[in-house]
Amino acid sequence: MTVPLTYFGVHLAFILPPLLILGWLAFRRDQAWWGVRPLSGLGIMICLAVVYTTPFTNHLIPGEVWWYGEGAVVATVWHTPIEEYLFFVLQPILTAFWLFQIPATADRSLAIPHTHRLIGVGGGLSVASIGWLLTGGTSTYYLGWLLLWTGPILAIQWGFGLTYLWAVRRPLLVAIAVPTVYLWIVDRVAIELGIWVISDTYTTGYTLLGLPIEEALFFLVTNIFIVQGIVMYLWLLDRIHEVPTLSRALTRFSTSSNEP
Predict the structure, then answer these.
(1) First-to-final CA distance of the chain
(2) What phi and psi, each to the nearest 5 degrees, are found at residue 211?
(3) What is the full DSSP assignment across 43-70?
(4) Transmembrane segments in this chain: where (predicted)?
């Protein structure tokens, strides 16, 4: 049975409209983040999202952890639909444009305590370790691979800026929560319409209002990646003078770029 709405239709109906509205608001509002710095951070997040997520989906899709309804996608590259690759680009933009409405900043030095770095790295690696153990089970296979995939990024981000992220935790929470809940709703609608189907075999069976917890967790952690990554990137740029080597390199680059 052909699905009533295609994957590309999901982008047109649910992703592009709020993305365009939020982008326009960020561009127009003086209080919002906009310009070279936040947009370059977004560009970096998009590149990392495509590079890091591509092997993940191309490992799980051929294992039938999830699949797509008849006529739901136009074509696939490797094992992943082109609409999925497009989502790797659109989700960071959507989430970032929401983040830009509520800038999260604090006056904190880059020199955070070593114990905080160790706690951050240890927390991320613990998530990955739990994931590795869960990949051995059938019903925890999706959850295990998701946690294993998540852990290294959390270890890097928390190891670099756990102290700073805690200092801006309130706007950070809002920046993560709103697009996450929205994408949960979109995902639930798409599953209900049969655009994609999540395997009962490789999931725990626990749901959040009908949404498999693995799917809910995926959107949560990916939005955490995006928000934390951009916030810490801008923090680094604001405090770059604390790293003399990088500061001198940027100064030389800026000088040479301005020469005729």
Answers:
(1) 63
(2) -95, 125
(3) HHHHHHHHHHHHHHHHHHTTTTSEEE-B
(4) 6-27, 39-61, 85-106, 118-135, 141-165, 172-196, 216-237
Residue numbers in the chain where pLDDT is lower than 50: 253, 257-258, 260
By three-state DSSP, how is residue 30 classified?
A: coil
The DSSP secondary-structure symbol of 240 reads G
> Cα Rg for the chain, rounded, in angstroms?
20
- In this structure, what is the dihedral angle of CA atoms 37, 40, 45, 51, given to the nearest 10 degrees? -160
Q: Which two tokens stand for residue 189?
A: 């609608």
Q: Residue 68: what are its φ and ψ, rounded to 5°?
A: -120, 150
- Tell me if the pTM is above 0.90: yes
List CB contacts of 157: < 8 A, sequence separation 6 or more. Answer: 120, 124, 165, 225, 228, 229, 232
Please answer whether residues 61 and 80 qualify as being in contact, where contact means their C-beta atoms are separated by less than 8 angstroms.
yes
Q: Which residues contact 135 (CB under 8 A, 6 or more apart)?
A: 141, 144, 145, 148
Q: Rounded to whole angstroms, how far apart are CA atoms 101 and 25?
A: 8
Determine the Cα–Cα distance for residues 42 and 152; give it in Å rounded to an integer: 20
Q: Distance of CA 18 to CAs 40, 94, 97, 251, Å?
A: 21, 7, 9, 38
